[in-house]
Design a protein that fits this description.
InterPro entries: CB (IPR044068), DNA_brk_join_enz (IPR011010), Integrase-like_cat_sf (IPR013762), Integrase_catalytic (IPR002104), Integrase_recombinase_N (IPR010998), Integrase_SAM-like_N (IPR004107), Tyrosine_recombinase_XerCD (IPR050090)
Pfam family, one: Phage_int_SAM_3
Helix content: 40-55%
Largest sheet: 5 strands, antiparallel
Order of helices and strands: EEEEEHHHHHHHHEEHEHHHHHHH
GO molecular function: DNA binding
Distance between the termini: 89 Å
Family: Belongs to the 'phage' integrase family.
Protein name: Tyrosine-type recombinase/integrase
Structural class: alpha+beta
CATH class of the largest domain: Mainly Alpha
Number of domains: 3
Oligomer: single chain
CATH architecture of the largest domain: Orthogonal Bundle
Length: 442
């Protein structure tokens, strides 16, 4: 406890400034009573008269601010971001990690040293300009919305702790650009893509390279037939979450239970189901299962190599494959670089143009919103009305089958192909796919 010393300098300003010194310390503490609350400050002074003068100056400054309807004591924005990050530790906010990264990369470096009660609209304009300069290109509107939401929460924290008034919070503007066209594969590119991916597998110099290419081939086929998100949604999928013969209203489907990824992170649901007709979606799963070999456990990851290991960076491996088969960029103007996410856009594009699901049903199936579908696929036209034709998995399946599975037999990835083979014709559509297509035509 601070020692009390009988000295006329210990109590000042009618008792609203009190000096105390802690046992074992040589520095005086100042306790200032402002608006009925005590504020404690370290004076950094060892002489009681110097400490008293400093404390009175601080008190007078605070009272001046109070009389002019300002907060008595201001802080820096980095103080508010630090407090906000501390508050996040005890919250269950799903976007907490994203906000921490935003603060570290985009808020503290430019705004951290500014006083909270002096932040102005000009400072926000300067911040947005600085971000664009650092990024090297304009941000999308959705990214700017995320940045603004984080900074707004920081200001709310400052208001809650009395470091700024609500009327001092500046208006945040969104100067981001509308979402750009998403790169995808046209329907007539899917079969050539899969043919080239399949033919590239035996050309790998190392066995690990050949195995990665084979796994990527199955991964891409399943992306095309389900519209799932690449990354966490599929990378964390286990065999116990895949039902290859789930029945509904007399029809069989492949049902995938998603328990990780974007939809799970940002919504209250604990899992999401993706379904596709078993006739067209089961073959790639069965081919993958056969390639991985016996001894499969229900808790094993679906997308793993035969030795049980997983690909560290599926996206990077896929980019290498696209570069080798000269399909990295789409046909847009200007051309846009494709990624594994392009298959999700291909699925959505095909479904919107040919599908029977309403936009609400498609959004539910893909784990997104109607607004996002309208934002990214409005150029397709049919968004104005509900899509009219058949299910996407059946429509996309002939393109998949035309380059797929070599009748279900995987490559022998233990050996590099010695002589290049010439494909005289695309492999036949597996019987299950042909049956599904014939049923569709009927």
């Amino acid at each position: 406890m601070p020692r009390r010393i009988d000295d006329p300098w210990r109590k000042l300003r009618d008792g609203n400034v009190v000096l105390k010194i802690r046992k074992g310390s040589s520095y005086w503490q100042a306790h200032l009573k402002v608006r009925g609350e005590w504020i404690r400050l370290s004076t950094g002074k060892t002489d009681i008269r110097d400490a008293g003068q400093w404390a009175c100056d601080q008190y007078d400054d605070m009272m001046y601010r109070v009389r002019h309807k300002q907060v008595p004591r201001t802080k820096l924005i980095r103080d508010a971001t630090a407090q906000y990050i501390q508050d996040l530790e005890s919250s269950n906010l799903v976007s907490a990690d994203d906000y921490r990264r935003t603060i570290k990369k985009w808020i503290d470096p430019h705004l951290g040293g500014k006083k909270l009660d002096e932040i102005s609209p000009q400072d926000i304009i300067g911040w947005n300009a600085w971000k664009r300069l650092q990024h090297g290109k304009p941000f999308s509107k959705s990214t700017v919305t995320s940045h603004n939401a984080c900074l707004s929460n920081v200001f709310k924290t400052a208001v809650r702790y009395g470091w700024m008034n609500e009327w001092q919070v500046p208006k945040l503007v969104n100067d981001g650009e509308p979402g750009m066209r998403r790169p995808h594969f046209d329907e007539d590119e899917i079969a050539p893509l899969l043919v080239k991916m399949w033919d590239l597998i035996p050309e790998g110099r190392k066995q690990k390279t050949r195995e990665i290419r084979q796994l990527l081939y199955y991964y891409v086929s399943i992306l095309l037939l389900t519209g799932a998100r690449p990354g966490k949604e599929l990378d964390n999928l286990r065999w116990r979450q895949v039902d290859l013969a789930w029945e509904r209203e007399g029809q069989k489907f492949v049902k995938i239970i998603i328990t990780a990824g974007k939809t799970i992170k940002y919504s209250r649901v604990r899992q999401r189901a993706i379904t596709a007709p078993a006739g067209v979606a089961a073959p790639p799963f069965k081919a993958l299962m056969a390639w991985q070999g016996p001894g499969k456990d229900d808790d094993d990851f679906v997308f793993r190599l035969p030795d049980g290991s997983r690909i560290g960076n599926m996206q990077s491996s896929f980019r290498t494959v696209l570069e080798k088969i000269d399909m990295l960029y789409d046909k847009g103007d200007p051309p846009t670089r494709r990624t594994l996410y392009s298959f999700r856009h291909s699925y959505a594009t095909t479904q919107i143009v040919h599908g029977t699901m309403s936009l609400i049903e498609l959004a539910t199936h893909m784990g997104t919103s109607v607004a996002m579908l309208e934002q990214h696929y409005a150029h397709l036209g049919p968004l104005a009305i509900a899509p009219k034709v058949a299910a996407n998995a059946v429509l996309i399946s002939p393109h998949v089958a035309a380059g797929a599975f070599n009748d279900g037999q995987p490559h022998d990835t233990s050996k590099k192909r010695q002589k290049p083979e010439t494909r005289k014709a695309s492999p036949a559509i597996p019987k299950s796919l042909a049956a599904a297509l014939a049923e569709k035509e009927d």
